Amino acid sequence: MWKKWQLFRATDFQSLMYPCFTFSNILGIFPYKISGSTFEISKQRYILAIFILGVFSIYVLVVLYEINIARTIYVGNVPKTLERNCLYISAIFMAVVAYILSGSRMHLLQTIMNVSSKLPLNSYKKLSKLIHTKDILGFFLQIIIEVFYCIRSNFTWYKMPVPYIHLMVFQLDMLYMNCVCILNACFKRIDDKLINLRELVINDEPHLLRRIYHEHKNSFLLMELKALKKQHLVISDTVQMLNKVFSLHILATIIMTFSQLTFHLYFYITEWKTSVSENSTFNLFVHLSIMMHTTIYCIRIILIVWACESGKDRAMKIGITVHDLLNSTSDKEITEELQLFSVQILHRENVFSAKGLIVDVTLLIAIVRNISAYLLILVQFFITARLQLFSVQILHRENIFSAKGLNVDVTLLIAIVSKVTTYLLILIQFFITAHLCNITTVNNVTQIT
């Protein structure tokens, strides 16, 4: 049963994740129900998830067959075909992986619910402002973009999976980001408690020496440190579980984001270049749906990287706080406990990754750099193809001035001069021969007389 929830006023894990779980359930990627504080598989939702996955997979496979093998669907040139293939293959991979790992994902959500149960109410309220805004506003904005895409584009039967693909990927990404934000809040709680212990040791040391060290043998501080160390270990294990469950999805998201951004930017550049060369107007409104998809991809990957980077920094800050607390106390038992805590932190590298690929700012920079590189390569291919077409056109269009096959050029002039000279010489020879004949005739007549 769902607990009562209010917008921006979450009080526990269920009310915090309610919008995300609701939208995921509508898309058929949340085959669970919550009984009390326990996640369970819902048979009806599980059957719905299998049905949606089956229909979606068959539909996408048919579209891929028609595009690549039967070639009855023409989506455009080679870059456009590659873009469609990357989108459909990545999407069907995500859907299958989400179904296969549904049990592991349920166990992960149960673990995060248990870990986050110790968060104060104020932390839930702060998280709800971010998570509720992001989930609700993002989901409905994505729906508006998909409706606009269906209206503006030449929507045919093979484009029907595209809106579902974008909504499914968006919802899975938001689920991952929500989990990261909750774990970040758990790390922050541990760090805040360590800071409070440090202030207690520094400010009240004489009082503590009299009341705790001598009378209670530091039981309060030791119990707090052991409890925090145990909580840190549980949260660190949860981070590793999150990396295992979502690693394939994050890899597919990175590949899809990289391919979509690269090809979309390439299409913009080529369309703009074509419009300039043909002296036509580049209509931004026609490409508005693709531009909005590109913007959503950029915002989504930036938010994921920001959440993972914040979580990593918060986990590293715990180590700094432990060292500060270690330098602030001289008690042997507390020092030993802090040293054990420090060793645990060093051996538990709390980073959010996907199959060894760390999701941080470095990854974002690498994506931007590689998009720029491949975009330049595609533009070079476009320019080369245009030049080749121009060259073929030049070869097949002999732009010469002629008259019934007779080319009017220097060769014609040379031929005319040559022929005139030849015929002039022939005429001169005829003239000389005729003159000599006349002289010979006159001489013969003179001799006879």
From TrEMBL:
GO terms for cellular component: axon; dendrite; neuronal cell body; plasma membrane. The keyword Transport does not apply. The keyword Transmembrane helix applies. Keywords: Cell membrane, Membrane, Receptor, Transducer, Transmembrane, Transmembrane helix. Pfam families: 7tm_7 (PF08395). It comes from the Eukaryota. It is a multi-pass membrane protein. The chain crosses the membrane at residues 16-34, 46-67, 87-108, 136-158, 164-187, 245-269, 284-308, 357-383, 410-432. It is found in: Cell membrane. InterPro entries: 7TM_chemorcpt (IPR013604). GO terms for biological process: chemosensory behavior; male courtship behavior; sensory perception of taste; signal transduction. Belongs to the insect chemoreceptor superfamily. Gustatory receptor (GR) family. Gustatory receptor which mediates acceptance or avoidance behavior, depending on its substrates. This is Gustatory receptor. It comes from Acromyrmex heyeri.
